[in-house]
């Protein structure tokens, strides 16, 4: 069965699915759409997803969408290396961790990455509305990071000793914050977000575990790599 995946380089929901595919060691054809050219909004792509969003997986002529639904489908379709555990209680814990962080971590991350990636190289003026909004978002992010460190404890991965759907969902959000720290270090330091290792060493260790998994490199956003090489 051929799995054709549509994503946009660096799009966190698409990255979730790529990580899940690699965790399960499945092969797939990957098509990156050019987000800046609006390829995901084109009529041709809307036949696959009327909302014009990635990720989409096409197999046997059927287009499937919604990142969490795709993780669920992949796990039911390919039972090896489960993403949602092997028992009801493990499954419940993984779903809970996945949806908790899918909602709250993603919201906090977006509130920081949108102004950082789309704005100037310098943080907004002190006491401006933008500065207050960023400060609030940083506080929220740090709460999520502390919760993640509690969930991790001494585990290798978020829900145990094997990567699960929770790791696939959480990693892309942290990666975007790390990307902001790499590309706009002064901005990020100024808003109180220096490197993950300095502030959240347990999370830093977990990031390296994910980055060291076989196939991780296949999921890494090509335009980030190109920017570093340039
Ligand atoms: N609920 C959807 C959200 C999909 C989504 O928002 N995808 C983003 C990329 S992470 C997208 O396609 N953005 C393009 C746009 O909104 O124009 C999912 O989880 O798959």
What does this structure look like?
The protein is of the alpha+beta class and 230 residues long. The chain has 2 domains: 4-77, 3-Layer(aba) Sandwich (Glutaredoxin), CATH 3.40.30.10; 88-229, Glutathione S-transferase Yfyf (Class Pi), Chain A, domain 2 (Up-down Bundle). Helix content is 58%, strand content 8%. The chain is built from 11 helices and 4 strands; from the N terminus they run E-H-E-H-E-E-H-H-H-H-H-H-H-H-H. It has helices at residues 12-23, 43-46, 67-77, 88-118, 129-152, 165-183, 185-190, 196-199, 201-211, 216-219, 222-229, and strands at 4-8, 29-33, 56-59, 62-65. Strand 1, helix 1 (12-23) and strand 2 (29-33) form a beta-alpha-beta unit. The longest helix is centred in the middle third of the chain and has 31 residues, at 88-118. It is globular, with a radius of gyration of 18 Å. The termini are far apart. The model has no long low-confidence stretch (mean pLDDT 95). The site of glutathione has 12 residues, from helix 1 and helix 3.
Secondary structure elements and pairings:
Layout: E1 4-8, H1 12-23, E2 29-33, H2 43-46, E3 56-59, E4 62-65, H3 67-77, H4 88-118, H5 129-152, H6 165-183, H7 185-190, H8 196-199, H9 201-211, H10 216-219, H11 222-229
Parallel strand pairs: 1-2
Antiparallel strand pairs: 1-3, 3-4
The chain binds glutathione.
Glutathione (GSH) binds at residues 8, 11-14, 40, 53-55, 66-68.
């Amino acid at each position: 069965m051929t799995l054709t995946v549509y994503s946009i380089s660096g799009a966190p929901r698409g990255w979730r699915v790529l990580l899940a595919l690699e965790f399960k060691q499945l092969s797939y054809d990957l098509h990156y759409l050019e987000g800046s050219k609006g390829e995901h909004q084109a009529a041709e792509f809307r036949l696959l997803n009327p909302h014009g969003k990635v990720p989409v997986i096409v197999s046997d002529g059927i287009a499937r969408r919604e990142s969490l639904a795709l993780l669920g489908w992949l796990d039911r379709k390919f039972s090896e290396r489960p993403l949602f555990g092997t028992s009801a209680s493990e499954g419940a814990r993984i779903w809970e961790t996945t949806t908790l962080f899918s909602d709250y971590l993603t919201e906090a991350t977006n509130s920081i990455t949108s102004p950082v990636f789309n704005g100037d190289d310098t943080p907004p003026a002190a006491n401006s509305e933008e500065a207050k909004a960023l400060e609030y978002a940083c506080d929220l992010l740090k709460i999520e990071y502390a919760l993640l460190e509690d969930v991790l404890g001494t585990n290798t991965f978020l829900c145990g000793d094997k990567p699960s759907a929770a790791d696939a969902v959480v990693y892309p959000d942290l990666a975007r914050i790390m990307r902001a720290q790499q590309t706009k270090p002064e901005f990020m330091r100024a808003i109180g977000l220096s490197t993950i290792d300095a502030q959240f060493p347990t999370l830093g260790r977990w990031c390296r575990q994910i980055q060291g998994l076989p196939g991780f490199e296949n999921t890494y956003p090509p335009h980030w790599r190109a920017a570093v090489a340039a």
